[in-house]
Amino acid sequence: MEGLRILSPSEQVAGHLRKELLRGRWIVTMPGVPSLAAEMGVNRKTVDAALKQLDTEGILVPQGAGRRRAIGVLPEGLTPPPLRLGILLYELVDKRVDYIVEILHMLMEAGHAPFFANRTLTDLGMNAKRVAEFTEAAGADAWIVLAGSVDVLNWFAEQDFPTFALFGSASDSHVAGARPNKPPAYRKVVRTLVELGHRRIVLLARSQRRKPEPGDSEQTFLDALVEEGVQIGEYHLPDWNDSKESFFECLDSLFQVTPPTALIVQEAHVFTAAQQFLAGRGLKVPLDVSMVCSDPDPTFAWCEPSIAHIRWRPQPLVRRIVRWADKVSRGKGDVVQSLAKAEFVNGGTVGKVRE
Fold this sequence. Notes:
Elements: H1 9-22, H2 33-40, H3 44-56, E1 60-61, E2 70-71, E3 84-88, H4 98-109, E4 113-116, H5 128-138, E5 142-146, H6 150-157, E6 163-166, E7 176-181, H7 183-195, E8 201-204, H8 216-227, H9 244-254, E9 262-265, H10 268-280, E10 290-293, E11 308-312, H11 315-329, E12 337-345
Parallel strand pairs: 3-4, 3-5, 5-6, 6-7, 7-12, 8-9, 9-10, 10-11
Antiparallel strand pairs: 1-2, 11-12
């Protein structure tokens, strides 16, 4: 008969934590030693020893000094716990975009608990400190961030919880992400417009796509103008602060002295606002001004003349997010950044420069 083995305090704590982990109490990262010790009423050295035991078993993965332990890969056959996924939108209008709604529904079907944050990046001023305070109070296991700036995404990359950057300036941030590969399409847009006689070509882009440095698509636009012999300046990528009022002030300024003959506008609803501005001034598209939208929109199928735009399929991006959420829920790391194919679709809003 085997002798009765008395478990040490640290082994007892490790056993308790192991059971809690396997039933999905904690997801993605483990609480720190102080909070666990306070919860269980044991000293910190005992908790620290228990966590180190779980490290050796591969259940927990140390992330370095001062950082929470990651939760390792779940045993085969164990259903991964659902993730509480916060979706941090750029602005409120994003909530009505078809593929954003599809992301929400597909994550729900996969067994997760996604929710739209009650503040947007615009509400938070794209300020990393304010974003930090807000996300800490929101209580999500992981975040999906739409069109985040460099500073905001760099902050998310430094956190213990996983983050997925949908669009935005994620190329230099150590987070998972997906976006359309627009630079080749921008080059085609510029070449097409120049061939039609356009040289006063303006790209209306959000501030986080211009500051502190132009994004990939915006830099490609400027480079393509230079390649076509256009001397570039602030005129071609003007400054505005992302508000409706600032947008129309920018357009007013552009059309006062040397009006553009072509506008490339990022986002379909901003494109519509620019169309309204031109109509209010009695300017016809494309007779007076050619227009290109940097994104597709379902309403374009109903427009006459047809809308010139950059087309990309959102479904690969949606599926990529669902795969990422599945990996994260199983304790697997994923910081891969994916690109979806994008192409320029010419249309009736582009024409020759008026003589």
